[in-house]
């Protein structure tokens, strides 16, 4: 990391100091992971890890890291470590450190030392100002390591000495009786400190200067991204783990294990029996299932998409390609944006007041489809319009110059080029409507725990007749269930209402898991479609 | 865009009052004076071009404004049938603008307003009731920057004829046994050969056209315009991104096309203009047509001092 090697294109082999700094970064990452693990109570802070309680481990690591970083900074300032620091750490870093130490000083003064308002204000200003000065005035190597390292050491000592120990509680004394307990506070503080120290160590690893700042920012962004992904993964994993037992209850494989089905006039037994997915709820069932809700959700989404997508694309084509850009398109744009942000319960109420009376005066699958279709419509309009606007005008000019009509241009050039974007919009929209509860509750819901006989059979429901409207489908006019609604009602109705479901908790989680799978299934279809359209537009 | 035409007298007055080159008092914005440009008055007779045969396009008193920017100033010229007309002039002088007026592509630019008359075989194209689709079928265009569709090479070529209904390759046509697949293949090959692209792409006709190099895209766009078989072909610097070999092939193509087609071509390459064109129009800064006549005459013995300076490379 010597200044000499910085100007060279190829840096020399890793030096020992680099290895130390890299070790510190790694340790900070481990510490960050450990603290996240204890935030989510995978390990409680009193659990012994490697012979010491978690809290002591966290505190000890913080102290070690803090000292390492400070030593590195001081070593660099005294010239023992070759680095390439700027004259100052920068206003952003100094301001942040000042603010952090301001808070720390205030908390210690008011909470630990019990000083009054005047006392903690003074203490805050002193610590905050000192941190700002230490960070801003000296060279970057001191300015970015000392405040961070000191904070880590301070936090570590506080945890180790038990000032904030496992039984520590900070009662905020508000009316809501909010309080912070150690189980939450210690890991969060540790995570925060490890981020700061990790950043400082990363800067040190890069030898400060431009390269150091780059690596510091990289480590911060990276840790942040990892933790967000980890959080999402945790959420899904949680649902899957909780849901799996209920989902596979009574699963049986083998010839003839499943129920009989008739396809194209041939009756045969399915080779699987999967009660949760194949059954409804009935007294005589060994294992109850959610088949009506699964089928209801799928048809609901299919219906809403079939209704909203052609209409939405048509409207977008009109306002993008035909209408002159001006007042009118602005108004339409504002209206569609507003409609998309309208809460779903409002759409539900509209469906109840407007659609239900006109569709046989009862809740029905069709009313649900249309209501959700209305909800989906604005998003389809917005995204279709956006992606059509993104199609370069050169294509339209080229097509017009070839003597091709506007409509043919829209159909053969603009729409194909816009399709990937449109599909992305539909994917997002489907994700939202598939999980809607309120509109379904108002427009389509049947019983809380529907029996298998209530499964809608939309395809089989079409009937021809000689008088108008020639085609009818009573299945569409039937009230039915959908997964989110079923989940909602299972939770709110309690066990009593659906007493013929045993192990209700398992049942709920399995329903949630199925909902997740169904929505992800729609995603997969959408993404595959988008991939297909995109691959037609792009060269590889 | 205005459909009305200025009376000749009006236009005359405008031209006469203009001092070409210098900051002229008659115009709303000062003209740029490039060093070396002399002040001189544009004369009517410099833009008169005598030729035998019919005029395919006759432009008279054409003014184009982009907002307040007067981009073309009272341009009049007659473009003879079955010939190559080169448009030359410094960057920003309005060559592309002029070209776009000939198939009314300027209508598509919101800011543009056009005043004047353009007749295609004696028929006014700036009047009410002109079918733009039909006009552009007859007057094809190759743009300054290549703009292939994000489709396969073959689809790019056959796009125009298919949309015109000249070729039918749809599912229905296939089912009815009326598909023109063979005709399409033939058309694709012929157009690509004409544009000197066939040898490079014949093994990947189904690949996306965006994967071609810039020069290949340029030739693809030429092939695409040829495929619709227009009467007039407007080409805006069709060889700007081509190597000498491809350029000479395009020049040969333009030469051959002049047998049956009327070609109007913009180029920045004087030698090219001199080589391939029958007549040359020189536009100079400010959107003025300064000289128009036989290519040989314009290049060897220009009447305007400014044109001579431009051609000999003193400015522009
Ligand atoms: N779409 C447009 N909107 C506004 N002004 C334009 C537009 N197109 C061209 N202009 C203006 O009109 C003038 C002539 O432009 P034009 O594109 O016709 O020049 P050109 O002779 O083709 O130049 P080049 O050789 O660089 O292609 C320029 O001053 C330009 O700024
Ligand atoms: Mg141009």
Structure characterization notes:
The complex is a heterodimer of chains A (540) and B (316). Chain A contains 19 helices and ten strands. Chain A has 540 residues and is mainly alpha-helical. Chain A has three domains: 9-88 and 138-171 and 179-238; 253-278, no CATH class; 285-539, MetI-like (MetI-like fold). In chain A, the strands form five sheets. Chain A has a two-stranded antiparallel ribbon. In chain A, helix 11 (327-340) crosses helix 13 (365-389) and helix 12 crosses helix 13 (365-389). Chain A is globular. Chain B has 316 residues and is α/β, with parallel strands linked by helices. Chain B has one domain (54-311): P-loop containing nucleotide triphosphate hydrolases (Rossmann fold, 3-Layer(aba) Sandwich), CATH 3.40.50. Chain B has helices at residues 8-17, 95-102, 132-138, 153-164, 171-175, 181-194, 198-201, 214-227, 244-257, 270-276, 295-300, 305-311; strands spanning 55-66, 69-80, 84-88, 112-120, 123-124, 139-142, 232-236, 262-266, 279-284, 288-294. The radius of gyration of chain B is 21 Å and the shape is globular. Chain B starts with 7 loop residues before the first helix and ends in a 5-residue tail after the last helix. The interface between A and B is medium-sized, with 23 and 33 residues. Magnesium ion binds next to helix 2 of chain B.
């Amino acid at each position: 990391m010597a200044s000499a090697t910085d100007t060279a294109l190829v840096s020399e082999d890793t030096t020992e100091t680099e290895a130390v700094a890299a070790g510190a970064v790694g340790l900070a990452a481990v510490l960050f992971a450990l603290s996240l693990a204890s935030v989510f109570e995978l390990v409680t802070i009193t659990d012994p890890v490697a012979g010491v309680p978690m809290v002591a481990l966290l505190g000890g690591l913080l102290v070690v890291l803090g000292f390492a970083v400070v030593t590195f900074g001081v070593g660099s300032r005294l010239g023992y470590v070759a680095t390439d620091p700027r004259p100052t750490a920068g206003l952003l870093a100094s301001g942040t450190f000042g603010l952090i130490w301001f808070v720390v000083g205030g908390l210690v003064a008011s909470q630990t030392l019990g000083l009054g308002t005047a006392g903690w204000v003074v203490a805050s200003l002193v610590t905050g100002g000192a941190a700002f000065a230490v960070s801003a005035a000296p060279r970057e190597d001191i300015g970015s390591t000392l405040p961070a390292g000191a904070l880590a050491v301070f936090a570590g000592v506080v945890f180790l000495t038990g000032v904030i120990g496992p039984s520590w509680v900070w009662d905020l004394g508000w009316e809501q009786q909010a309080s912070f307990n150690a189980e939450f506070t210690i890991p969060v503080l540790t995570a925060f400190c490890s981020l700061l120290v990790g950043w400082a160590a990363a800067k040190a690893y890069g030898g400060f200067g431009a390269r150091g700042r780059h690596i510091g920012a990289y480590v911060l962004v990276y840790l942040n991204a990892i933790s967000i992904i980890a959080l999402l993964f945790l959420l899904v994993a949680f649902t899957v783990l909780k849901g799996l037992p209920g989902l596979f209850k009574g699963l049986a494989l083998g010839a003839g294990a499943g129920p009989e089905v008739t396809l194209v006039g041939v009756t045969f037994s399915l080779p699987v029996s999967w009660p949760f997915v194949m059954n409804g709820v009935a007294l005589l069932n060994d294992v109850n299932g959610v088949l009506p809700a699964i089928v209801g959700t799928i048809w609901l989404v299919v219906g809403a998409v079939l209704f909203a997508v052609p209409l939405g694309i048509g409207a977008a084509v009109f306002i993008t390609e035909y209408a002159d850009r001006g007042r009118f398109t602005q108004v339409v744009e504002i209206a569609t944006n507003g409609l998309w942000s309208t809460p779903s319960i409002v759409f539900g109420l509209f469906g109840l007041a407007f659609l239900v009376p006109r569709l046989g005066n009862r809740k029905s699958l069709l009313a649900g489809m249309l209501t959700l279709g209305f909800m989906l419509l604005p998003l389809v309009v917005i995204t279709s319009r956006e992606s059509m606007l993104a199609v370069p005008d050169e294509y339209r000019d080229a097509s017009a110059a070839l003597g091709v009509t506007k409509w043919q241009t829209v159909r053969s050039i603009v729409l194909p080029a816009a399709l990937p974007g449109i599909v992305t919009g539909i994917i997002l929209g489907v994700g939202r409507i598939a999980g809607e509860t309120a509109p379904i509750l108002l427009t389509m819901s049947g019983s809380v725990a529907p029996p298998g006989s209530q499964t809608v059979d939309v395809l089989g429901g079409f009937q021809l007749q000689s008088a108008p409207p020639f085609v009818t489908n009573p299945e569409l006019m039937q009230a039915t269930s959908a997964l989110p609604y079923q989940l909602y009602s299972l939770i709110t109705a309690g066990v009593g209402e659906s007493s013929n479901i045993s192990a209700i908790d398992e049942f709920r989680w399995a329903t949630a898991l199925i909902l997740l799978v169904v929505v992800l299934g729609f995603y997969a279809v959408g993404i595959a479609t988008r991939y297909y359209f995109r691959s037609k537009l792009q060269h590889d | 865009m205005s459909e009305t035409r200025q009376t000749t007298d009006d236009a005359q007055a405008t031209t006469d009052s203009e001092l070409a080159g210098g900051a002229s008092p008659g115009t709303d914005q000062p003209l740029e004076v490039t060093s070396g440009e002399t002040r001189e008055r544009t004369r009517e007779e410099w833009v008169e071009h005598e030729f035998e045969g019919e005029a395919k396009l006759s432009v008279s008193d054409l003014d184009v404004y982009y907002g307040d920017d007067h981009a073309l100033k009272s341009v009049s010229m007659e473009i003879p049938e079955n010939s190559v007309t080169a448009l030359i002039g410094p960057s920003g002088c309005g060559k592309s603008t002029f070209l776009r007026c000939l198939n009314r592509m300027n209508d598509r630019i919101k800011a543009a307003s056009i005043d004047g008359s353009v007749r295609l075989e004696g028929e006014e194209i700036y009047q009410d009731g002109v079918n733009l689709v039909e006009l552009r079928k007859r007057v094809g265009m190759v743009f300054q920057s290549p703009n292939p569709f994000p489709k396969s090479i073959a689809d790019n070529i056959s796009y125009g004829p298919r949309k015109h209904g000249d070729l039918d390759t749809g599912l229905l046509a296939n089912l009815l046994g009326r598909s023109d697949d063979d005709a399409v293949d033939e058309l694709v090959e012929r157009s690509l050969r004409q544009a000197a692209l066939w040898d490079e792409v014949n093994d990947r006709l189904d690949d996306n056209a965006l994967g071609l190099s810039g020069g290949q895209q340029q030739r693809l766009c030429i092939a695409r315009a040829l495929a619709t078989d227009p009467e007039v072909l407007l080409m805006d610097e069709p060889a700007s991104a081509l190597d000498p070999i491809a350029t000479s092939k395009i020049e040969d193509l333009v030469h051959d096309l002049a047998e049956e087609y009327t070609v109007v071509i913009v180029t920045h390459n004087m030698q090219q203009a001199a080589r391939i064109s029958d007549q040359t129009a020189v536009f100079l800064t400010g959107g003025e047509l300064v000289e128009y006549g036989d290519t040989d005459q314009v290049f060897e013995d220009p009447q305007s001092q400014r044109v001579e300076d431009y051609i000999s490379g003193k400015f522009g």
